[in-house]
Amino acid sequence: MAKKKRKTEWHRHRVQALWTLLTNSYLAGFVQGKIYKGPLKKLCVPGLNCYSCPGALGACPIGAMQAVIGSWNFKFAFYVAGFLMFVGALFGRFACGWLCPFGLIQDLLHKIPFPKKIGTFRGDRLLRKLKYVILLLFVILLPLCLVDIMGQGAPYFCKLICPAGTLEGGIPLVLLNSTMHSALGWLYVWKNVLLLLTVLLAVMIYRPFCKYICPLGAIYSVFNPIAVFRYKVNKEKCTGCGACRKACKMQLDPVEEANHPECIHCGQCKKVCGTQAVTDHFTSSRSETLTSYDPQA
Asked: How far is CA 243 from CA 10, 35, 105, 237, 238, in A?
């Protein structure tokens, strides 16, 4: 069973790696130290992929949202909001588990041996609410309210917090452009400290950024219970062995919390189920027997 679990996990990592390569395939950017600004950059990608990454072909939806939410560019603002709603309604947090480059980085970091991995701790569930606060404050309110004379807000989450942007964009651009060295200051140091802290935590805790910080995950999580792609649990087949609960690195009980907002649809619960009680499928039917998370329960 453990061998099967590892095989399934590496299959997901291959999909993650392939998607990361496809969406960051502008090799000239790494050679020239420049950002791709072609027509594809007007399109958002479903995962957290920094706009400033030299190889990025598309735009990060969180960065794009901050750029337009406080401006008069309503058409693009509606496009970004519509894109997020479309991906969320169709896949939920499947995008987090399979299509996010920074999610892949955290997955691989967690495979590094450490004396004691941290599964959960007191206050873990409460701390996971922090990403909704960050979404509301740094992605929506600050860019919406603090605008310049042109009516545009600054990307405060990208500027002050996002470790993915530092890793994918900040560090490569600084290394490839010596002219930027003189412009570095406390903000660059602060962002690198946050990145280092995220890396260290990712070795000990599975996907700490996804659990506690990521505003994109916060948006997709809202759609998880109602998304077209969902998990189905057949309680008649379930023996209550607890294998799925032990396999879940997001510390959920798939039997009682299928399609919980924290579920990234990694598929481990489905693969370890000996009776195939856990399945995934595309369905819009609400009449099927689903054991779904009830936010009012």
From this structure: 19, 46, 26, 14, 10
Mean pLDDT across 111-126: 94
What's the number of CA atoms in the CB half-sphere (13 Å) around residue 175?
12
The neighbouring-strand residues paired with 242 are: none
Token couple for 34: 């420049």
Q: State the pTM of this model.
A: 0.89
First to last CA, the chain: 33
Q: In residues, how long is the chain?
A: 297
| Burial of 37: CB neighbours in 10 Å, binned 0-12, 13-18, 19+ | exposed
DSSP3 helix / strand / coil % (the chain, rounded to 5): 55, 5, 40
Determine which helix (DSSP H) or strand (DSSP E) holds 221, and give its type and residue range: helix 215-223
- Give the Å distances, CA to CA, from 264 to 137, 157, 203, 247: 24, 22, 19, 13
The sign one gets for the Cα dihedral 282, 286, 290, 295 is: positive
Q: Does the pLDDT at position 49 exceed 60?
A: yes
pLDDT tens sequence across 143-199: 888 866 666 678 899 999 999 999 999 999 999 988 888 778 999 999 999 999 999
